Amino acid sequence: TPLFETIIKHVSAPAVDPDGPFQMQVSSLDYSSYVGLIGIGRIQRGRVKTNTPVTVIDREGKRRQGRVLQILGFQGLERIEFSEASAGDIIAFTGLDQVGISDTLCDPACPEALPALTVDEPTISMVFQVNDSPFAGREGKYITSRQLRARLMKELSYNVALRVEDTDDPDKFRVSGRGELHLSILVETMRREGYEMAISRPEVIMREIDGEICEPFESLTVDIEEQHQGAVMERLGARRGDLRDMQPDGKGRVRLDYIIPARGLIGFQTEYLTVTSGTGLIYHVFDHYGPQKKGTIANRINGALIANATGKALAYALFNLQERGRLFIGHGDEVYEGMVIGLHSRDNDLTVNPLRAKQLTNIRAAGTDENLILTPAIRMTLEQALEFIDDDELVEVTPASIRLRKKFLLEHDRRRASRKSA
Predict the structure, then answer these.
(1) What is the reported pLDDT for 193?
(2) DSSP annotation string for 133-163
């Protein structure tokens, strides 16, 4: 194909030494329940065969001996087993139990470590907790805190940017990562594996540096059409972003570079896609820790509509609730007390009854029942749900459903908690 021919013509071959002693660096990790830890990297020098003894040098310079038992190459999305690989090949290997990102594998006769790779520190944290809603255990296979903790600890073995901490509550775990996307991928993966859990709102990780509270800042680049420039700049300004550079390309698009607090990016992705009608490109990476900017950023203005009973929602009740706000559920959806079923049109939370049926009487009606037309419900993705929730809310994640709920399901518990916080 023309693309393949262009790659061959213009992309230079890797700068490697195929004749020297073996040397490669681990750049990624994977895990298999069958063979254990799998290291992935590119061979910088020499060759390696199956069952070859190697010296492993970690980032501290400590050495240990091991043996490469299996060599896997990549063909499309599949892994193909090979007996030998040479310099320039990207391979996966098994046989080394305690290998980490940046470790160097080399010939025992010529142990030379490659420069250590840097892994960005976590900047965002969320609390994973056992699902304690009335619907807990209906849709998932793994629901206990022991199963949840074991899965998170397993993830640590190959997800090097992740941090997991125990909390005072044995049913809750604080999980820290590189951003919303990093953590939401973990949640989605666990969900597909059959786990049930409740997730708190993402929070940035603050640090105290020289006696001053500092927050993480990100370097943000957006590439947008010129017609969306004003709307995007307005929203980034509201999120405390500082414009550093602007580069029009002369073809109707413009690139903007910002330095923005990491908390200003929480919830921005969905808003950005909406404003740019899906045409905008966005990229951000951790830049530095700096003094915390004053004020709140991107808090939700509207309150929530909260169910006050457990059962199946009825069209008659939902039809009358539509004027109160936008609904997240439809006719026949199961709800429980304390579940967030919609976005209130005002700034306060409102407890409502989505189960109320039309009262029947023995008086003959003059006309027929009116046809109830419901506005289609808003169905949120996992990322949208995490961006939407407030500090007193959780996202309930199961293999089949994503629900929003209050931390305290009963109304009198919520009132008591709000009085304490006030």
Answers:
(1) 93
(2) STTTTSS-SB-SHHHHHHHHHHHHTT-TT-E
Give the three-class secondary structure for 383. helix
Task: Give CA–CA dist 368/360, Å, rounded.
Answer: 13
DSSP-assigned letter for residue 66: E
Q: CA angle, 9 as apex, 7 and 14 as ends, to 5°?
A: 70
**Could you tell me how far CA 187 lies from the centroid of its own chain?**
7
Domain boundary among 151, 178, 204: 204
Q: How many helices (H) and strands (E) does the chain have?
A: 8, 28
Report how far apart, in Å, the C-alpha atoms of 332 and of each of 193, 242, 315, 401 are.
27, 47, 8, 14
CATH number of the CATH domain containing 192:
3.30.70.870
d(CA 321, CA 309): 15
Q: Give the model's pLDDT for residue 17.
A: 83
Q: Are 234 and 146 within one domain?
A: no
For the purposes of burial, counting CB atoms within 10 Å of the CB of 200, is it exposed (0-12), middle (13-18) or buried (19 or more)?
Answer: buried
Q: Which amino acid is residue 94, in one-letter code?
A: T
Structure-block tokens of residue 27: 């750049």
Looking at residue 39, its amino acid is: G
How much is the pLDDT for 400? 93
**Do 27 and 41 touch, CB atoms closer than 8 A?**
yes
Question: What's the pLDDT tens digit per position in 72-130?
Answer: 998 888 889 989 999 989 999 998 888 888 899 999 998 888 888 877 788 899 999 99
Per-residue pLDDT, 267 = 81
Report how many domains make up the chain: 4
Pairing of strands 90-94, 172-177: unpaired
Cβ of 8: how many Cβ atoms within 10 Å? 9
Instruction: Yes or no: say if 403 and 282 are a contact pair by the CB < 8 Å rule.
Output: no
Q: Tell me the whole-structure pTM to 2 decimals.
A: 0.81
- Regions of the chain where pLDDT drops below 70: 298, 364-369, 422
Residue 324 inside a domain? The answer is yes
Q: Is 144:216 a contact under the CB 8 Å cutoff?
A: no
281 and 218 fall within a common domain: yes
In a domain, 119, yes or no: no
Task: Among 291, 316, 347, give the residue marking a domain's end.
Answer: 291
Distance separating alpha carbons of residues 328 and 336, to the nearest angstrom: 13
